[in-house]
Recover the amino acids of this structure.
């Protein structure tokens, strides 16, 4: 009966967001209270569980997500993103322009949040389309596939970062595994898939013609690349060092501190304030204003993550999480595939990849705790499933349709299929890694 109540609550959550148009944070809170009542959690413990869940979930995430937003915003505002794109396009030439844009999207997509990356990159795509008379969808889709993959797979993006915390995974290891899976997923969903849609016509609207920053005011190429990718470099380096450092406790202690994602993001943001701020002629006050705007941009994302934590805690305190884990263990389905399917179903129903991933985490976490599944791979499996088949209930679907001025049919043939390819390829990569790791 308890499992049936949980399923009812998930359906109510989906209906509140899709049919009722309720904000996801409010929907999570309402369903958390409803779940507590239906699962007969003592009345005085329901709000305590909600508050505990919100605090626990946000405690280790606020700094990472906010600092990640600050770095991404400065990368965009300083012109570093434009410089990276220009360098890559000059290096690849017109013949391989598609690959240049795809790599640009991947590099810039790591520090930038998806919405910011989309709005920043689409004008760049159109500048190439107008200048070289190339098919817009054919040229642009690989770059957007790269943005989507970084959004679903790689920290410090909100959903994978939150999943790392909820599953007890390691941020650096998850990033390394995510990079291994992301590259083939982007290539298959980008350049390879786009060959089949080369003849789809698209006339981007004139209003989206880019307003580029003066080339003389752009930061240097090395500065742009190194600063944008500094969190990746530091996370990768500290993760590798922790594996080769042996059992020396003093070294282990130092590495534990310097490998903390929050500290790495803080160092990256402080470095960026000078390399992309002061060194580029901005005052510290102007840089701090950019950082302040960035935090405003992610306020609602933090609330949605907090709401998902509230629902997770209610399910845990009621004891139903243990029942779900016990029931799921009897299913003849690999836990990684199960996590992917759950996230995919919720994604199709709700439209939001973040909501899909976080809702799945609350259900699948107890199963993960009682199984031998690698938590880093579960983060990636749920992240891949949360990207499955974007359609008319997803804001990204409409952004792509309107920016590229496509019909709904052509948007489904291009954007929706691309997202599905990313999700399926991601799951395949996770299962291959699982086999390799378990050898």
């Amino acid at each position: 009966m308890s499992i049936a109540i949980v399923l009812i609550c998930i359906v109510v959550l989906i209906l509140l967001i899709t049919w009722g148009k309720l904000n996801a944070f409010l929907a999570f809170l309402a369903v958390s209270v409803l779940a507590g009542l239906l699962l007969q959690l003592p009345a005085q413990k329901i709000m305590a569980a909600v508050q505990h869940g919100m605090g626990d979930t946000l405690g280790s995430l606020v700094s990472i997500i906010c600092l990640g937003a600050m770095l991404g915003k400065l990368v965009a505002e300083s012109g570093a993103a434009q410089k990276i794109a220009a360098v890559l396009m000059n290096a690849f030439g017109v013949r391989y322009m598609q690959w240049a844009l795809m790599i640009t999207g991947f590099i810039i997509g790591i520090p930038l949040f998806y919405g910011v990356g989309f709005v920043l990159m689409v004008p760049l795509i159109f500048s190439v389309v107008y200048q070289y008379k190339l098919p817009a969808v054919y040229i642009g889709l690989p770059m957007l596939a790269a943005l989507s993959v970084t959004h679903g797979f790689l920290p410090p993006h909100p959903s994978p970062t939150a999943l790392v915390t909820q599953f007890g995974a390691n941020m650096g290891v998850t990033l390394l595994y995510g990079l291994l899976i992301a590259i083939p997923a982007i290539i298959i969903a980008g350049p390879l898939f786009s060959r089949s849609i080369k003849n789809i016509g698209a006339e981007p609207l004139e209003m989206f013609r880019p307003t580029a920053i003066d080339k003389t005011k752009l930061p240097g190429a090395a500065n742009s690349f190194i600063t944008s990718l500094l969190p990746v470099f530091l996370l990768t380096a500290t993760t590798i060092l922790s594996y080769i450092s042996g059992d020396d406790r003093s070294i282990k202690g130092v590495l534990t501190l310097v490998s903390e994602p929050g500290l790495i993001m803080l160092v990256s943001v402080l470095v960026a304030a000078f390399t992309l701020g002061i060194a580029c002629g901005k005052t510290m006050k102007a840089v701090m204003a950019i950082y302040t705007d960035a935090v405003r941009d992610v306020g609602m994302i933090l609330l949605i993550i907090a709401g998902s934590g509230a629902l997770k805690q209610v399910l845990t305190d009621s004891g139903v999480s243990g029942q779900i884990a016990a029931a799921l263990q009897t299913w003849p389905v690999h836990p990684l595939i199960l996590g992917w399917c759950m996230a995919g179903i919720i994604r199709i129903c709700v439209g939001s990849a973040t909501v899909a991933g976080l809702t799945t985490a609350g259900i699948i976490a107890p199963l993960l705790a009682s199984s031998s599944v690698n938590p880093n791979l579960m983060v990636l499996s749920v992240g891949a499933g949360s990207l499955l088949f974007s359609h008319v209930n997803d804001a990204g679907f409409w952004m792509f349709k309107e920016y590229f001025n496509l019909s709904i049919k052509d948007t489904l043939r291009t954007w929706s299929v691309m997202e599905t390819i990313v999700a399926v390829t991601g799951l395949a990569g996770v299962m291959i890694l699982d086999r390799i790791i378990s050898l």
Summary: Residues 408-438 form the longest helix (31 residues).
